[in-house]
Amino acid sequence: MRILVTGGAGFIGSHFVRGLPGASVTVLDKLTYAGRRANLEGAAHTFVHGDICDAGLLAEVVPGHDVVVNFAAESHVDRSIEGASEFVRSNVLGTQTLLQACLEAGVAKVVQVSTDEVYGTIESGSWTEDAPLAPRSPYAASKAGADLIARSYAVTYGLDVSITRCGNNYGPRQYPEKIIPLFVTRLLRGATVPLYGDGGNVRDWIHVKDHCAGIRLVMDKGEPGEVYHIAGTAELTNLELAGRLLEACGQGWDLVEYVEDRKGHDRRYSLDDAKLRALGYRREIPFEQGLKDTVRWYAGHRGWWAA
Ligand SMILES: NC(=O)c1ccc[n+]([C@@H]2O[C@H](COP(=O)([O-])OP(=O)(O)OC[C@H]3O[C@@H](n4cnc5c(N)ncnc54)[C@H](O)[C@@H]3O)[C@@H](O)[C@H]2O)c1
Ligand SMILES: Cc1cn([C@H]2C[C@H](O)[C@@H](COP(=O)(O)OP(=O)(O)O[C@H]3O[C@H](CO)[C@@H](O)[C@H](O)[C@H]3O)O2)c(=O)[nH]c1=O
Q1: Are 235 and 287 in contact (CB under 8 A)?
Q2: In a mutational test of the pocket of ligand 1, which residue from 32, 139, 204, 206 has the highest number of ligand atoms less than 8 Å from its CB?
Q3: 80 alpha carbon, closest ligand
Q4: Where does the NAD(P)-binding domain start and stop, copy by copy (predicted)?
Q5: Measured between alpha carbons, how far is 292 from 288 in angstroms, rounded to an integer?
Q6: Distance between CA 91 and CA 87 in Å, rounded?
Q7: Euclidean distance between CA atoms 224 and 42, whole angstroms
Q8: Residues contacting 115, CB < 8 A, separation 6+
Q9: CA separation (Å) from 253 to 191, 198, 203, 279?
Q10: CATH top-level class of 2-169+206-232+269-285
Q11: 39 and 198 in contact (C-beta within 8 Å)?
Q12: Where are the domains of the chain?
């Protein structure tokens, strides 16, 4: 089987590529600030440096692949608040350009990797896959746009594209702008960490390897045009998370600074993943173990994050 992984030099994509032994893998990545060739060190693949908005390049690269999994995106909410245009370009136009190339090349299966943020914010309970889309940040809106384009390619052209939506990932090789790697890399050098607002916002954490296992299952068993949730293993306020990170890094609360809240800050996300579990999905990495291993990884790879 020949698999094209777009955005495969980023955090989640590079873990996904490592979890595909035996497949013939091509990685296409623009190498933005978040993508690094080094993330793929030791993983068998052919690398193509390029942009998913480049239709000419895709017409050369996509044909011959049986499966395409799209991770390529601008992924950080705070950056989208500073400037939305690159998010619309890469996430919406890029996804449409890639889907068109897949259609023209006769690709048998496409997986669009998406997020729980497309639903907005939820006070209690969990979203099922038929919940209305109500994104609140430019990042979330651009991912919702990509999901809708993907669904339209399934309905209109019969392209076999499934969509996965997952919560907050953590693990090795995550760019130190997201809360866990940012806090860990700062705490390990004794620096302060910024907690937004009252610290009461809730996120549901999943180890990146558990996310990738869910995507592999959808790649094998997902139905065309269908959405599948991949839920987390630990629902925590940011304050609770900060406490766990301080403890893991051997630091105290004096390093936590309460700062101005994120604009339009979503209070809570929560996914119901019964649909994926019905396909046989099981999460394997408990949060306590995963977090311990992740902190150990950052402590042992100072050259990676200081680079
Ligand atoms: N991080 C999370 O918690 C999370 C959760 C759910 C879904 N997702 C989704 O998973 C995907 C990967 O997220 P991540 O955290 O690994 O992001 P990341 O920012 O670490 O990696 C994104 C990768 O995409 C590449 N890229 C960006 N624009 C591109 C373009 N126009 N053409 C080709 N490559 C491009 C970057 O160079 C980088 O390698 C994204 O689509 C994101 O929306 C992330
Ligand atoms: C960076 C940062 C974040 N925060 C807060 C904001 C959020 O409530 C929480 C997590 O923030 P982030 O790590 O930026 O992640 P969040 O905005 O939830 O989005 C992530 O999770 C999403 C899935 O839910 C993915 O789609 C996104 O790509 C990914 O970036 O921590 C802080 O309090 N301080 C910080 O410095």
Answers
A1: no
A2: 32
A3: 2
A4: 4-294
A5: 6
A6: 5
A7: 33
A8: 140, 143, 165, 166, 167
A9: 12, 15, 20, 43
A10: alpha beta
A11: no
A12: 2-169+206-232+269-285
Summarize the chain as % helix, strand, coil (round to 5): 45, 20, 40
Ligand 2 pocket residues where CB is under 6 Å: 75-77, 115-117, 167-168, 178-179, 182, 194-196, 201, 203, 238, 262, 269
CA pair distance 67, 247, nearest whole angstrom: 42
Q: What separation, in Å, do the N-terminal and C-terminal C-alpha atoms of the chain show?
A: 35
Q: Give the count of beta carbons closer than 10 Å to the beta carbon of residue 59.
A: 13
pTM: 0.98
Our mutation pick for probing the ligand 1 site, out of 4, 6, 12, counting the most ligand atoms within 8 A of Cβ, is 12
Q: Is 32 in the pocket of ligand 1 (CB under 6 A)?
A: yes
Of 29, 116, 235, 273, the catalytic one is: 116
Residue 117 known to be catalytic: yes
ipTM: 0.99
Q: Which ligand 2 atom sits nearest the alpha carbon of residue 169? A: 21
| pLDDT tens per residue, range 40-93 | 999 999 999 999 999 999 999 999 999 999 999 999 999 999 999 999 999 999
Sign of CA dihedral 157, 158, 159, 162: positive
